[in-house]
Design brief:
The chain has a domain of 219 residues: Phosphomannose Isomerase, domain 2 (Orthogonal Bundle), CATH 1.10.441. 24% of the residues lie in helices and 31% in strands. It is built from twelve helices and 25 strands. Strands 1, 8, 18, 19, 20, 21, 22, 23, 24 and 25 form a ten-stranded antiparallel β-sheet that branches. Strands 2, 7, 9, 11, 12, 13, 14, 15 and 17 form a nine-stranded antiparallel β-sheet that branches. β22 and β23 form a beta hairpin. α7 packs antiparallel against α10. The chain is elongated. The two termini are 20 Å apart. The chain binds zinc ion. The site of zinc ion has 4 residues, from loops.
Length: 417
């Protein structure tokens, strides 16, 4: 063995404008604990310190080149350490499965104060095509399905409502103009695609007039979707009343309010926009995105391109949900596994009370661990580690993990095998 199988890492946090301010941001608070790394104005690496004047959106854990993690104490790029010790740390199963030695997944902590861009992440074929044509905007040939696990109350728009719930809304006076001229007897996915395309392409004044028209209606006009009326002013103030995201999200998409511990799965080509809360997100290794709303018009991709790849799954609120299941590799039963239907990763969530013990069996691939809350003693790879709240760790394949919680521990672990 040439290197320890357990390596503490330091991460960094980016500053998209939808992030939470200063120390209100959980992503920033977690990043400050290790501490993570930052860069000064001259591009020199410094310790991460929270600046109350900045909004902090996402802490990234892993080896994506835009915001990589570095080893503690050596300060090496984690991917370089994995590459140099691929057999020991990544293992042949995972190297063969993906044909490379890069970490196939990217976990993040997100702190959301207002709507993220309305987006989808294109499938593998389109990603490869876009990457070839425009590598500076589409940095990966890979798809990017993702999961989001709530750490607090979490509001999100995800997938489409059931058609029978969209149809009556589209018959409201302000919205009829987005329907096709030739109407089919039944509102179907093709009509939905037409509606979304028309909303995304509408002129600013048409959107503003529609939003205003909807605002003037009685709450009861929206049937069971009374939240539409409540959210119009909030979304219009976050961006602008000319933003097409307001109409697409409120009229056609599921609005979900999750509690801590609940999760979502977003497939490739799935429409989504997160609205508020703190979450753990994990995705396949890629950064490709098509944005169409809840962002300045200059940042929007073409409505036709967006609609050409849009999938109609999920098509109800329930279909969006990703639920934790019993994890066979847990000795105490206090770890759940979240298994999205994809090959790049699964996620474990361990919740221990004061003094609880847990043993997690070795997996045949690499893991990234985050002590989200609380602390523990961890024994792994023949050594003992103090796992403080907010610390982040890389664990090589084939390593059993024993945890001894102090005053309780919540840990999120992304892994693949
Ligand atoms: Zn996304």
């Amino acid at each position: 063995m040439t290197v320890d199988s357990v390596i503490q890492i330091k991460c960094s946090c980016n500053q998209y404008p939808w992030g939470k301010q200063g120390s209100e941001s959980l992503a920033a608070r977690i990043c400050a604990k290790t501490p993570g790394w930052d860069e000064d104005d001259k591009g020199n690496k410094t310790d991460f310190k929270i600046d109350e004047n900045k909004a902090y959106s996402e802490m990234w854990m892993g080896t994506y080149p835009e915001l990589p993690s570095y080893t503690i104490p050596d300060g090496k790029d984690l991917q370089d350490v994995i590459d140099e010790n691929a057999d020991q740390l990544l293992g042949q199963t995972v190297a063969k499965k993906f044909g490379h030695t890069k970490l196939p997944y990217l976990p993040k902590v997100l702190s959301i104060s207002k709507a993220l861009p309305l987006q989808l992440h294109p499938n593998k074929d389109l990603s490869a095509e876009l990457h070839k044509k425009d590598p500076s905007n589409f940095t990966d040939p890979n798809h990017k399905p993702e999961i989001a696990l709530a750490l607090s109350k979490f509001e999100a728009f995800c997938g489409f409502k059931e058609l029978q719930d969209i149809e009556p809304l589209m018959n409201l006076d302000p919205l009829k103009k987005f329907l096709p001229d030739v109407k089919k007897p039944k509102f179907d996915d093709q009509m939905l695609k037409h509606v979304v395309n028309q909303m995304l392409k509408a002129e600013d004044d048409v959107i503003a007039e529609t939003v205003e028209g909807l605002r003037k209606l009685d709450t009861s006009s929206f049937g069971k979707d009374t939240y539409i009326h409540e959210l119009i002013p909030r979304l219009a103030s976050q961006y602008d009343k000319t933003d097409p995201g307001i109409l697409v999200a409120l009229i056609t998409m599921n609005y979900l309010v999750l509690e801590a511990g609940e999760g979502l799965f977003i497939p490739a080509d799935g429409i989504h926009a997160y609205l508020s809360g703190d979450i753990i997100e994990c995705m396949a290794r890629s950064n490709n995105v098509l944005n169409t709303g809840f962002c300045p018009s200059g940042d929007r991709n073409s409505a036709d391109l967006f609609c050409s790849v849009l999938t109609f799954s999920p098509h109800s609120a329930e279909e969006c949900m990703l639920r934790g299941e019993k994890y066979e590799g847990s000795s105490s039963g206090k770890t759940l596994v979240y298994k999205p239907p994809l090959s790049e990763f699964d996620m474990l969530v361990t919740d221990l009370g004061k003094g609880d013990k847990e043993t997690l069996k070795a997996v045949e691939g690499p893991s990234i661990l985050l002590a989200t809350k609380g602390s523990a003693t961890m024994r792994a790879g023949g050594k003992t580690y103090d796992v403080g709240e907010g610390t982040t760790w890389f664990v090589g394949q084939g390593t059993e993990i024993e945890l001894d919680s102090k005053d309780g521990l919540q840990m999120h672990i992304a892994y693949v095998e």
